Amino acid sequence: MNLNLKSTTALGLALSLLTGPAFAGMEEAQEFLDAEIGDMSALDRAAQEAEMQWFIDAAQPFAGMDIRVVSETITTHEYEAKVLAPAFSAITGINLTHDLIGEGDVVEKLQTQMQSGQNIYDAYVNDSDLIGTHWRYQQVRNLTDWMEGEGADVTNPGLDLDDFIGTQFTTAPDGKLYQLPDQQFANLYWFRYDWFNDEKNKADFKAEYGYDLGVPVNWSAYEDIAEFFTGRDLSHMGIDDEIFGNMDYGKKDPSLGWRYTDAWMSMAGMGDKGEPNGLPVDEWGIRVNDDSQPVGACMARGGAANSPAAVYAVEKAVDWLQNYSPPSAMGMTFSEAGPVPGQGNIAQQMFLYTTFVAPLVDSPAVMNEDGTPKWRLAPSPHGAYWEDGMKVGYQDVGSWTLMKSTPTDRAKAAWLYAQFVTSKIVDVKKAHTGLTFIRESTINHDSFSERAPKLGGLVEFYRSPARTQWSPTGTNVPDYPKLAQLWWQNIGDAMSGAKTAQESLDSLCGDMESVMERLERAGIQGDIGPAMNDEQGAEHWLSQPGSPKPKLDNEDEEPITVSYDELVASWQ
Questions:
Q1: Could you give the CA distance from residue 251 to residue 332 in angstroms, rounded to a whole number?
Q2: Element (H, E) at 95
């Protein structure tokens, strides 16, 4: 039976499967649907049961197998590991273990499997930030060919790839899909809506700065607001805590690198225009040629990682961290800093990974008694070098990845689980738990229309066309594991004061080029690997259009703010 993924309807799927063999797993499936899913699904009950029957039938050859998969530890994956994995095992007979480890550890395990060929895990939820790595090394199964070939018999006819919102991020320049999105979240501006709308705060801000307190459109306005709120007396609002106008983190730790590669530089305006990533220079400052081969990261070769815009980006981050943030922030990591806005003494944050929205809604200090938030989410402001047409921020897309070193039968069993936890059956309920959206049908589900007022703009953002301006690391990066570790090591020197921003970025781009030169010499990425430019000097490239961009005479723009309510209305 040849079923087209895009054209199969739920009704057609149901009719095709009702005559299939009965299996004991349907009883477990019905219990799971009753107890866990209910009407929290994009499919009605008949279509849920029909798709469950397909999973049961497809899994029969693998019943009794012990399969291990791995992901980073966030709320979404905790739900998968604790709820969906046991249900999948009970329904299919495949003994599925879903391990939860740190994001850096996931990359390390993946890298070890790539280098050794030893099958450590049968599938990985691996950030799409590695798309350039996977495409160039060709050590993962490209899913386009897999679903039409070896994996056709275990590919769900109701998968509906067109319903996924992030597949453009997991598709390489060859047009092949290399990863299947499992969870997706953006970095958005976060602020205390109640403080910004307080009449005394608005009047005092207008008197001091000469314009209205509102959502900052650019970094100049963000800086004014950070200055205004830091140390401000909010006793007139019944708040006695010490207030800070900014939250960030600065510990020399692998997560510090994410702070910058996760689009801080593009927000500043370092790269080129383009969606989903700047071309030819991306948000890492890496330039590629017309064949998508990396050719440099330093200005001397046409890159931008040590350009004036990059220096500006790092200097602003250090300045705001030192002057407007809690003193402890400098010694914090990503995971330590994430919950701090929920404690109730932070006025705004340049970007909040929206994976932290789930714990925020459980923080009484920032929630009203009726369950609505005292905060809101909005687009992050952009820096002085930013231009229309550039990406505005980062979007994390944790995606299922099948290594070629995984035996075929194990990869098939793991692929069934990957499709189960991303299926229309479970995705609405999963999204309500972790607030990480991967499907149009989930975002537009009636239950999220009802819940939207309690999520501070998250649903409105994901329903808006604006979301396409947030994207993960793109295909310019030839080896994410090797290059990512250079960022925190070098920028950590700028954060600590051991080096100036310029010195640390000169070192960073030089280190990145050393890695790319080694890849070029080794030739292991073939004709899509690095092909480094000859050095022509920074001035040659600064005089060309686009990135790298020459230093602005004035990096302090005229500050601009907008009304949050008008902003959200414009999305609709």
A1: 5
A2: strand 95-101
- CA dist list (Å): 475 to 69, 155, 172: 25, 26, 7
How far apart are alpha carbons 362 and 377 in whole angstroms? Answer: 16
**pLDDT at residue 572 in the model:** 65
CB 245 within 8 A of CB 329: no
Which burial class, exposed, middle or buried, applies to 560 when counting CB atoms under 10 A from its CB (0-12, 13-18, 19+)? middle
Residue 319: per-residue pLDDT: 97
| Angstrom distance (rounded) from CA 359 to CA 65 | 35
Which of helix, strand or coil describes residue 195? helix
The CATH number covering residue 447 comes to 3.40.190.10
Residues 527 and 545 occupy one common structural domain: yes
Residue bearing tokens 């250079």: 486
- Residues 437, 485: one domain? no
Cis amide bond preceding 559, omega within 30: no
Q: What is the dihedral of CA 218, 222, 223, 226, to 10 degrees?
A: 180
Q: Does residue 14 lie within any of the structural domains?
A: no
Q: Give the model's pLDDT for residue 21.
A: 39
DSSP bridge pairs for 373: 367
| Core vs surface per residue 386-419: b (16+ CB within 10 A) or e | beeebbbbbbbbbbbbbbebbeeebbbbbbbbbb
Find out whether 527 and 291 touch, Cβ atoms under 8 Å.
yes
| Residue stretches of the chain with pLDDT short of 50 | 1-23
Q: How many CB atoms lie within 10 A of CB 422?
A: 24
User: Which pLDDT does position 8 carry in this prediction?
Assistant: 36
Contacts of 159 (CB under 8 A, 6+ apart): 5, 419, 423
Measured CA to CA, the distance from residue 265 to residue 284 in angstroms comes to 7
Nearest CA-CA partner of 461 in 182, 89, 187: 187
* Polymer length in residues for the chain: 572
Instruction: Find the domain containing 137 and state its range.
Output: 24-178+402-457
Look at residue 569 in the predicted model and tell me its pLDDT.
Answer: 79
Q: What's the DSSP call for residue 230?
A: T
Q: Which two structure tokens, joined as six digits, stand for 333?
A: 């990591």
298 falls within a domain: yes
Note the pLDDT of residue 14: 38
Residue 454's Cβ-count burial label (10 Å; 0-12, 13-18, 19+) is: middle
Instruction: Tell me the DSSP string of 372-430.
Output: -BSEEEEPPPB-TT--TTS--B-EEEEEEE-BTTS-HHHHHHHHHHHHHHTSTTTHHHH
Provide the 3-class DSSP secondary structure of residue 257: helix
* Single-letter code of the amino acid located at 551: K
d(CA 406, CA 121): 8
Peptide bond into 548 cis (omega under 30): yes
On whether both 379 and 523 belong to a single domain, the answer is yes
Instruction: Answer yes or no: do 263 and 324 share one domain.
Output: yes
In a domain, 315, yes or no: yes
514 CB neighbour count, 10 Å cutoff? 12
Tokens standing for residue 180: 């299947």
What is the per-residue pLDDT for 24? 58
Which tens digit of pLDDT belongs to each residue from 53-95?
999 999 999 999 999 999 999 999 999 999 999 999 999 999 9
